[in-house]
Amino acid sequence: MMTNLETLRQRLAEFAAMRDWDQFHSPKNLAMALIAEAAELVEHFQWLSEEQSRQLSPEKKQAVSHEIADILIYLIRIADKLDIDLITAAEAKIQINETRYPVDMVKGDARRAEEY
Prior knowledge:
The protein is mostly helical. The protein has helices spanning 5-18, 27-45, 50-54, 58-81, 86-100, 103-106. The protein is globular.
């Protein structure tokens, strides 16, 4: 079982290389595939109420799980192609967001940073 992003990155790179798919896995193509998968994820929630979106049937939850996995796979492949460490990038972005959205100013309020 894969337990970290590096192991998953390596497995995905091997998967693509064995199929000679690296030639198709440019950052542009991977980004386009990622957004297509994100749209497929959204389709599962379209027209559901907030409550319904939290109470998915087991079948729907499995389908959503597959879409989320596709998104993660493409995200990891893009990061790999651009030599971006996802954990480091996420940690840096969290620090930026902590500055942009100080707790005492934004707690319970979901506006964009520019609106505060």
